[in-house]
Amino acid sequence: xxxxxxxxxxxxxxxxxxxxxxxxxxxxxxxxxxxxxxxxxxxxxxxxxxxxxxxxxxxxxxxxxxxxxxxxxxxxxxxxxxxxxxxxxxxxxxxxxxxxxxxxxxxxxxxxxxxxxxxxxxxxxxxxxxxxxxxxxxxxxxxxxxxxxxxxxxxxxxxxxxxxxxxxxxxxxxx
Length: 175
Fold this sequence. Notes:
Elements: E1 7-11, H1 15-23, E2 27-32, H2 38-44, E3 48-51, H3 55-59, E4 65-70, H4 78-84, E5 85-93, H5 106-110, E6 114-117, H6 123-136, E7 142-145, H7 150-159, E8 166-169, H8 171-174
Parallel strand pairs: 1-2, 1-4, 2-3, 4-5, 5-6, 7-8
C-alpha cells in the first residue's frame, strides 16, 4: 500500500496508534487533556505533544494536523480537536462516547474539515494490521492479571490510564 507522510495526532490513550503511525513514517503528535502522558507518548514514538488544558500548547499546533485519531471515550470538547486540524483535515472518532458530542459546523464548511468514525475494518484489514505489527515488532503494552485484580484495575482505569497498559485477564489463573 502507498502511504503518504502526514502530521498525525493520536490521543495519548492510543499508544498502539502512536507506535503504528510512527513506524509508518508519520510525524506523530500526541494529544491529551493534561501533561501527565508526555513521557509515555514520546516513549511510544510521538514527536510532539498537545496538552488540551493549556491554551499555549493548543495554539502551538492550531491548524497544523492532517489527521486526528481520537480514542477518547469520555465526553469532551470536539472544538478543541477541530481547531488543531488543517484545511482538509479529518478527525476520526475511534472512542465511543455515550453522550452526544457537540461542535460548530463553520470550521467544517470554511476549511473543509471532516469528522469520520471507524471500528474494526473487517477481518482482512485486521489481519493485515496484525501481520504488519509482527513484521515490525510492534506490540501492545500489556499486563496479565487474574480476576482478583479486576476491581483495582477498573478503579485505576476510571481515573486515567497513565501507563497506557492494556490488561489481559488470565481466566485459568483466576480460579
